[in-house]
């Protein structure tokens, strides 16, 4: 599929990849695709923001290009670099051949041949594609400002090379765990969607969809226990990925029910902090299994 005709059709295509999108999310993704606007997805970790980009790429039959943001990331890391070793080798080759015209040699250094495309440039040159700008809230203000031109115009300017413009805008999906507020200027350029953790029926459906053959009762028990854990004040409430890991761990051990012993044996699949393990232990595993 390359051009879904409705949010429902897109939701069905995402479902075929194993990603269950609610009505609001499928509408937002459809509009991002149809209006060629970036989609800004915000929500708690583990709510399926990054997975959405992967699923969209698979559903639309497009490559996915990922830019993982982090503190200190700059435009060069996201956009391009020059292949200095190859440029040097090129100069030496020209020199050895006795064909070293300084001006021509300098011009030949800054061509596509020696340009190393980083994710943003790769997305502009390889579009159509899905461009995942993951955890943009981890980047600095300066990097956000740099992204504005890219998202606005699907164009970048490289001083030594010239302007690069995408023939077809990539479908950009930006994610944020809301570790800090992203500037309004960036949000204004995007369609916005907030992702919550799935409710119980949705989580059961996700488990059954993503783990073929899982017993329905086990899926329901795991989903209910994860929902109970999220209601506790944990340092790291489990996301959908941890829910899937827990169910897979139980299946790998041949357990067909989530009882206290099975939960104790596999709790490390779903909780990743000692403080959280201690808190659950103090409260008692039965308290999350009984809900």
UniProtKB/TrEMBL annotation:
A GO MF label: ATP binding
SUPFAM superfamilies: P-loop containing nucleoside triphosphate hydrolases (SSF52540)
One Pfam family of this chain: AAA_5
Signal peptide bounds: none
Annotated AAA+ ATPase domain residues: 35-199
InterPro entries attached to this UniProt entry: AAA+_ATPase (IPR003593), ATPase_dyneun-rel_AAA (IPR011704), CbbQ/NirQ/NorQ/GpvN (IPR050764), P-loop_NTPase (IPR027417)
Protein name per Swiss-Prot or TrEMBL: MoxR family ATPase
């Amino acid at each position: 599929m390359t051009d879904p005709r409705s949010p429902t059709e897109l939701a069905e295509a995402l479902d075929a990849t194993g990603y269950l999108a609610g009505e609001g999310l499928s509408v937002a993704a459809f509009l991002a695709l149809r209006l060629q606007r970036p989609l800004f997805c915000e929500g708690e970790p583990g709510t399926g923001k990054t997975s959405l980009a992967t699923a969209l790429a698979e559903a639309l039959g497009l490559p996915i290009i990922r830019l993982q943001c982090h503190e200190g990331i700059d435009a060069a890391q996201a956009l391009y670099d020059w292949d200095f070793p190859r440029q040097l080798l090129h100069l030496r080759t020209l020199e050895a051949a006795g064909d070293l015209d300084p001006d021509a040699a300098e011009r030949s250094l800054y061509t596509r041949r020696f340009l190393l495309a980083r994710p943003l440039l790769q997305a502009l040159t390889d579009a159509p594609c899905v461009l995942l700008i993951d955890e943009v809230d981890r980047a600095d203000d300066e990097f956000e400002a740099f992204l504005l031109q890219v998202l606005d115009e699907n164009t970048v300017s490289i001083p030594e090379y010239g302007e690069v413009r995408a023939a077809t805008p990539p479908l950009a999906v930006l994610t944020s765990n809301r570790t800090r507020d992203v500037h309004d200027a960036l949000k204004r350029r995007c369609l916005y969607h907030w992702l919550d953790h799935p409710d119980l029926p949705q989580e059961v459906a996700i488990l059954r969809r993503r783990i073929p053959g899982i017993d329905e009762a086990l899926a329901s028990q795991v989903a209910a226990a994860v929902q109970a854990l999220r209601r506790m004040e944990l340092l790291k409430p489990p996301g959908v990925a941890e829910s899937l890991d827990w169910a897979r761990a139980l299946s790998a051990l041949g357990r067909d029910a989530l009882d206290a012993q099975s939960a104790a044996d596999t709790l490390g699949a779903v909780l990743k902090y000692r403080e959280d393990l201690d808190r659950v232990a103090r409260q008692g595993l039965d308290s999350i299994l009984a809900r």
